[in-house]
């Protein structure tokens, strides 16, 4: 909770510098190699890989830079992933901007999610004060659209299996490129049942 408050207070006190925009049309061509896992339009058909369509460009850029950094430093920095490391290390800064611009310009497809555990909605909207779990809605919003300015990604409508994989990585501290370790703090307090319920609920958001 303290880390969340710190991050938000810092964001409120600084201005965002102008950043060069990516070229979505150029990114479409550069992203062809990504389509095997993420789909032609960023809507992956394999639920272990994320849907990138409609995701914030700045968040996509950060992840690609983090993947590339991990590949260049042997996993000492950034976000370590054997597949994405190999893909991103070949990208220039402009390539990253262009690919991010392309995916952010696409429209995410939504799937009907059934039999959602009630606890998933409860944790997402209200957290758990007893266990010190911050409500997900505080950062990701009521519909899971997140906040680009704050660096919180859109997660609504994402594959439940991908969400589950990432929450488990944060839980086990195998992923640590989150802002001020906030996701690690929250996920560490979640049970496997919580993670399953949350993943299902978030996937159902529209």
Automatic annotation (TrEMBL):
Keyword vocabulary terms for this entry: Electron transport, Heme, Iron, Metal-binding, Periplasm, Signal, Transport
Every Cytochrome c domain range: 22-107, 115-206
PTM comment: Binds 2 heme c groups covalently per subunit.
Signal peptide: 1-20
GO cellular component terms listed in the entry, alphabetical order: periplasmic space
Cross-referenced InterPro entries: Cyt_c-like_dom, Cyt_c-like_dom_sf, Cytochrome_c4-like, Cytochrome_c_Oxidase_Subunit
Pfam families per record: Cytochrom_C
Full protein name: Cytochrome c4
